[in-house]
Amino acid sequence: MTKKKRKTGRGKNQSGPYPFEFRLRVVRMYLEEEYPVPLIIKETGVGRSTISTWVRK
C-alpha cells in the first residue's frame, strides 16, 4: 500500500513561505483595489483561507 502525496495548491515551489512582497500585493489587491476573492485566487493561485489569514494580520 502506497501513500499518496496531498496537493498543497502551491504548484512546483512548495518550500518555504510566500515572499512578503507577494503577500502584501495580494492583501492590497483585496483591501485597496477591491478585487473579489475568486479573482485573486485565479490570478495568484493562493487559497481562500490563506488570503483570509493574510488580510486578518
Pick out its properties:
57 residues
Which helices and strands occur, and which strands form pairs?
Elements: H1 20-31, H2 37-44, H3 48-56
Organism: Desulforhopalus singaporensis
Domain Insertion element IS150 protein InsJ-like helix-turn-helix: 22-57
InterPro entries: Homeodomain-like_sf, InsJ-like_HTH
Question: Would you write up a description of this structure?
Answer:
The chain is mostly helical and about 55 residues long. About 50% of the residues lie in helices and about 0% in strands. The protein is globular, with a radius of gyration of 13 Å.
Uncertain segments:
none
**Basic shape:** globular
Distance between the termini: 41 Å
> Could you tell me the radius of gyration in angstroms?
13 Å
The run of helices and strands is HHH
Q: What structural class do you assign from the helix and strand content?
A: mainly alpha
Helix segment tally: 3
- What portion of the residues fall into strands of 2 or more residues? under 5%
Sheet with most strands:
none
Relative helix content: 40-55%
Report the mean per-residue pLDDT as an integer. Answer: 85
Number of DSSP-assigned strands: 0
Short synopsis of the structure:
It is built from three helices and no strands.
